[in-house]
Amino acid sequence: MKKLILSVFVLIASMSAFAEKSDSKAENKSTTKSELAMTVVSGNIIDEATGEALVGVEVTIEGSDSKAYTDFDGHFTLKNVKTGECKLVANYTSYSKSEKTVDLKSKKNQVKIELQASK
Question: What is the pTM of this model?
Answer without folding.
Answer: 0.67
